[in-house]
Design brief:
Immunoglobulin-like; Rossmann fold; hydrolase; glycosidase; 23 helices; signal; 6-stranded mixed β-sheet; alpha/beta
Length: 803
């Protein structure tokens, strides 16, 4: 009885103390509060503010609501909505996501959505409520989707990430990232969601287009370009934004290609391959990380303490904040069945290391109840709040929460940004095949047939996570070819759709091809959302819509996982009919994932892959087709011969893969493949070694000569193989690349510097070590087109980190 009495007494005292603390925290804030002093050290400001916050305010600060509901628009005027005022007053929110987002899921269109000028007004109105109508006056973080341009009306549309990766040019990614950051900040946003660092080793997965491909090294280098562009020299700069990495961890290899499904990989593979790009990004100072929907080895990523706290915080020293993917906290219970209640899910996520909730339903009341029921400590809550507030202070939002409303007109979709989009589209165009030099085409052609479902479909050029845009700013292949060849007779026939077979007119396409000197057939896929498609609460699309009589083109993009990789609908039938006319035929692929093109590879003389080339894709394609630009794009993913080959990525672990009964194990086109209108020779490979221990460097140099009759770019690729290792390693792995321009006849020496980090593996005890022994360096133009090889020996084992 005495024990029960004391227990009740202590509980009563706790409640009283908590109530008094809350009352004290709600006192009016003095004008001279430390957190309001711009001259005070940031850490002092953070501490002072957190000490003044109630539990409700702390929980609210970690809540990110859907932003497109937070304004009302009437004509050319915009103001904060009642929903926002309620969210500030009751939920005491700290952030919004997608204020400027427009797409069929949000039901925001060109007419009822925000153009850049109105976006600036809307974000100012929203911030005014947060700053002036709340007790503490904490400005909101505004986050936006920004992987291939800001997902908003009137912004610059760049090629999708898989197209960016095809450039093999991280500096171009940096230019793009800086341009996107300027557009975001001009409209009032502070966080750009991107880059995506997932390895795409499962082509059936719906989000391959959002990745930089299958190789950890390429992904890390291209990702670092975006991060450097986003964050610049620091987020104190009013033209920089916080970069949010997606998705932590190993999201791109879910079982069966099912988006968000279970991931089955071992700890060594996780660390060696999937964590490689994330570690590079953390070392570079990225400030935000987003969790994945999937589970890894049975633990949901959003509640994986070993990864979010043990690895990310304690081992890697990450100092930014972790945000859940939309509804992934709820998914701990609803999808993974790893929590009995949503309150338990909130507690699991918070205790694992998630600092902020995207969507507003994962934390909020559930986290508040978890705290009151003793499942989450105030110390952990304070820690999460501090991670968020620290960056708000560092960005200067307390002093400058508003933007200049005339700025977007000068910045967003400027001529300079459009030029970067064109440059990126050009550098990403990948020539897969060019039999007998069919390309480039003569500008003396008089009759050209342009055929296919992707030849003149605007949104099929842009990929997923794209807002409605004015048609005059998006150049399709047909428009690019017409602009390039104004005197030629150009006949356009769609022929068929991507998926739908009821709107097919192959005879018209055949007639056009017969009367033309060349037929350019533009096929592939689409991630174009439409207003008939149904969406899940996460924004992912469902595969089909109720009562649809005409199928949407969409066969890629979030939620559109595939069981086959064939050209859908009657596309192949269309291509075969055009080829049968005898007219020289060129296949152009516009797509978001590798598709099976065995028949075209055998029968079509020239094949070009542009992925989703963005707003300037049509002009870029025309420049390549007619020889004004010499293509040098490279495949960031292998193209398989069949689904049964998958996974078919080049850097698989030993042993060497055996052939199948039906076909070889080799891909149709390998990672790094891409042709040019000129030729290049490699010579004079030299390897030298200097330094010792962790200061060891291996210098590799090679001379490359343009031996053809055109100027052009070459992508020199360095692959490394650990000849004998204590654990199984990849047969080879990319450890350096450089895109260089060479005039015809010109030679250049390309030099790579390898450090122990590029040689390292995770040994049997999970120590990160570069083991003594022999390594083989392979230099060439693709993972299969190796021109030169030479070995060197590391004389001592070099330990980088301990388990």
């Amino acid at each position: 009885m005495c024990y029960i009495y004391l227990k009740k007494l202590f509980a009563t005292v706790f409640v009283l103390v908590f109530a008094v603390a809350q009352l004290c925290a709600q006192e009016e804030v003095p004008a001279n509060a430390v957190y309001k002093n711009a001259q005070a050290p940031i850490e002092d400001r953070v501490t002072d503010l957190v000490e003044r916050m109630t539990i409700e305010e702390k929980v609210g600060q970690l809540t990110t609501l859907l932003g497109w509901k937070m304004y009302t628009k009437t004509g050319n005027s915009v103001k904060a909505s009642e929903a926002l005022k309620e969210a500030i007053a009751i939920q005491k929110i700290g952030a919004l996501w997608g204020v400027m987002r427009a797409d069929p899921w949000t039901q925001k269109t060109l007419s009822n959505g925000l153009n850049p000028e109105l976006a600036a007004k809307a974000t100012n109105a929203i911030q005014k409520v947060a700053v002036e109508e709340s007790r503490l006056g904490i400005p909101l973080f505004l986050a936006e989707e920004a992987m291939h341009g800001h997902m908003a009306i009137g912004t610059t549309e760049f090629p999708s990430a898989i197209g960016q990766a095809s450039t093999f040019n991280p500096q171009l990614n940096k230019k793009m990232g800086a341009a996107v950051a300027k557009e975001l900040r001009a409209q009032g946003a502070h966080i750009g969601y991107g880059p995506i660092l997932d390895l795409a080793r499962e082509p059936r997965w719906s989000r391959v287009e959002e990745t930089f491909g299958e190789d950890p090294y390429l992904i890390s280098e291209m990702g670092l370009g975006v991060i450097e562009g986003f964050q610049g020299e620091g987020i104190e700069n009013p033209e920089s934004v916080i970069s949010t990495l997606k998705h932590f961890a190993a999201y791109g290899v879910s079982e069966g290609g099912h988006n968000g499904g279970a991931v089955h990989i071992g700890q060594r593979e996780l660390m060696q391959d999937y964590m490689y790009p994330f570690k590079k990004a953390i070392d570079a100072g990225v400030l935000s990380v987003m969790t994945a929907y999937s589970s890894v080895d049975g633990i949901p990523s959003t509640s994986n303490k070993a990864l979010l706290t043990g690895l990310l915080r304690e081992q890697w020293g990450f100092e930014g904040f972790v945000v859940s993917d939309l509804a992934s906290i709820e998914g701990i219970k609803g999808d993974h069945h790893a929590a009995a209640t949503f309150e338990d899910a909130a507690a699991l996520a918070m205790n694992a290391g998630v600092d902020a909730d995207l969507g507003g339903n994962g934390f909020d009341d559930e986290l508040l109840n978890a705290f009151k029921n003793g499942k989450v400590s105030e110390a952990r809550l304070d820690e999460a709040v501090k991670y968020v507030l620290r960056l708000k202070f560092k960005m200067g939002l307390f002093e400058n929460p508003y933007v200049e409303e005339k700025a977007p007109k000068k910045v967003v979709r400027s001529a300079a940004h459009i030029a970067i989009a064109k440059e990126m589209a050009l550098e990403g165009v990948t020539l897969l095949k060019n039999e007998n030099g069919l390309l480039p085409l003569s500008k003396e052609l008089k009759k050209i047939a342009v055929i296919g479902p992707n030849a003149d479909m605007m949104y099929n050029q842009l990929g997923d996570y794209t807002a409605p845009q004015e048609p005059e700013f998006i150049v399709t292949p047909l428009e690019g070819i017409r602009a390039k060849m104004p005197k030629a007779e150009i006949t356009y026939v769609k022929g068929t759709a991507i998926r739908d077979t009821t709107q097919t007119d192959i005879p018209a396409a055949v007639a056009a091809a017969k009367s033309a000197e060349v037929a350019i057939v533009v096929l592939g896929g689409s991630s174009a959302r439409d207003f008939k498609t149904e969406y899940l609460e996460t924004g992912a699309a469902t595969v089909s819509s109720k009562e649809d009589q005409v199928l949407s083109d969409m066969e890629s993009g979030e939620g559109y996982d595939r069981s086959t990789l064939d050209l859908m609908g009657k596309q192949l039938e269309l291509l075969q009919a055009v080829e049968a006319t005898g007219t020289p035929t060129i296949l152009v692929l516009i797509t978001g994932r590798p598709l099976l093109i065995n028949w075209p590879a055998k029968h079509i003389p020239a094949i070009i892959d542009t992925w989703y080339p963005g707003s300037q894709g049509g002009h870029a394609l025309a420049d390549v087709l007619f020889g004004d630009y010499n293509p040098a794009g490279r495949l960031p993913v292998s193209i398989p011969k069949s689904v049964g080959q998958s996974p078919v990525y080049y850097n698989h672990w030993w042993p060497k893969r055996r052939d199948y009964v039906e076909e070889t194990s080799a891909p149709l086109y390998a990672f790094g493949h891409g042709l040019s209108y000129t030729t290049f020779d490699y010579s004079d490979l030299k390897i030298s070694q200097s330094g010792n221990a962790t200061n060891t460097t291996i210098e590799v140099s090679v001379e490359v000569t343009n031996t053809g009759d055109r100027d052009g770019d070459e992508v020199v690729q360095l692959y490394l193989s650990d000849v004998v290792s204590s654990v199984v390693t990849p047969v080879k792995q990319l450890r350096g690349f450089e895109r260089i321009h060479l005039d015809k006849g010109e030679s250049k020496t390309v030099t790579f510097i390898l450090t122990p980090a590029e040689l390292a593996l995770f040994d049997a005890e999970m120590n990160h070590v570069a083991e003594a022994g022999e390594f083989e360096v392979q230099l060439g133009a693709s993972s299969q087109d190796i021109r030169l090889k030479e070995r060197f020996e590391l004389s001592e084992s070099i330990q980088l980190t301990n388990n």
